[in-house]
Write a structure and sequence with these properties.
4 strands; 9 helices; binds 2-acetamido-2-deoxy-beta-D-glucopyranose; mainly alpha
């Protein structure tokens, strides 16, 4: 009896306390974590960085900055036009992505599997103006380059070339390549060429089969030989969990 009474008492005390804590942490989540992301202080930091250089040159490291600028433009021009923000985020976004247009073949080859990250600003430009030919041509050129890295026997786009002649030797496949699929899908929509969509789907299929561990985490890099056999050496350079 005593223990029932005690349980009852504890439940009466603990339940509202627990609910109150949940409510409190929900409020804290909003005020401490989410709200600051939308504050003018956060925007000022982005603005100060945007104004600190007009010629950013490191890709893909800086690709998130034009993306942020495009998103702020969308927020204040379309989503929250009454917020009274008068910064010309669009011009800043374009200035910051300018260096990504018309890369030479050497530059393009140096981007390799990062070509998808580097195409994100163009896809934002197309969200702003779907008729923008400059952005459209850039997306299609980048997708064409990415398609040239597709090895049909494996069914994936190749991440790196390790020296001359390596393309057919060892097919190294980094999980980051999943970030490239939107480039292929956008190119399929823009051009009507379904090869891009097939490549993206095949790449995703193959990644699901061999890149994902049973516990849902992923290998960093998976290697295939030219006959599509999975090679045992699987690298985990940037992963928390290094063992298979
Ligand atoms: C198209 O996009 C480019 C690159 O961001 C930009 O410089 C240009 O002003 C845009 N043109 C139009 C007509 O929107
Ligand atoms: C579709 O895209 C692929 C990959 O870039 C290319 O090889 C093929 O020639 C294109 N097809 C057409 C009809 O343009
Ligand atoms: C991808 O996998 C799905 C489901 O297994 C299959 O229906 C589809 O044909 C595959 N597509 C490609 C391009 O490999």
């Amino acid at each position: 009896m005593l223990s029932h009474a005690l349980t009852g008492l504890l439940t009466c005390l603990a339940l509202p306390l627990g609910l109150a804590l949940t409510e409190r942490s929900r409020t804290a989540y909003w005020t401490e974590l989410v709200a600051p992301l939308y504050s003018s202080e956060a925007n000022n930091k982005v603005l100060a960085t945007a104004q600190s250089s007009s010629n950013p040159s490191q890709w893909p490291e800086y690709t998130d900055q034009p993306t942020r600028l495009y998103l702020l433009h969308e927020r204040f021009s379309t989503l929250c036009p009454n917020d009274g923000d008068t910064t010309d985020w669009l011009s800043l976004a374009r200035t910051w992505s300018n260096g990504l247009y018309n890369p030479s073949q050497d530059v393009l080859a140096s981007w390799a599997h990062d070509v998808g990250f580097n195409s994100v600003p163009m896809m934002h430009e197309l969200r702003h103006n779907p008729a923008n030919e400059t952005a459209k041509n850039a997306v299609l050129a980048n997708a064409q380059y990415l398609a040239s890295r597709y090895l049909s026997v494996v069914g994936c786009t190749k991440s790196w070339d390790r020296g001359k002649g390596d393309f057919e030797v060892r097919h190294m496949q980094i999980i980051d390549n999943m970030m490239n699929l939107q480039l292929l899908l956008t190119a399929a929509d823009l051009s009507g060429n379904s090869t891009y969509r097939d490549m993206a789907t095949s790449h995703a299929n193959k990644t699901m089969q061999n890149h994902i561990r049973p516990d849902g985490s992923s290998y960093h890099v998976v290697n295939y030989d030219p006959t599509n056999q999975l090679l045992p050496q699987t690298r985990h350079a940037q992963l928390y969990r290094r063992t298979r």
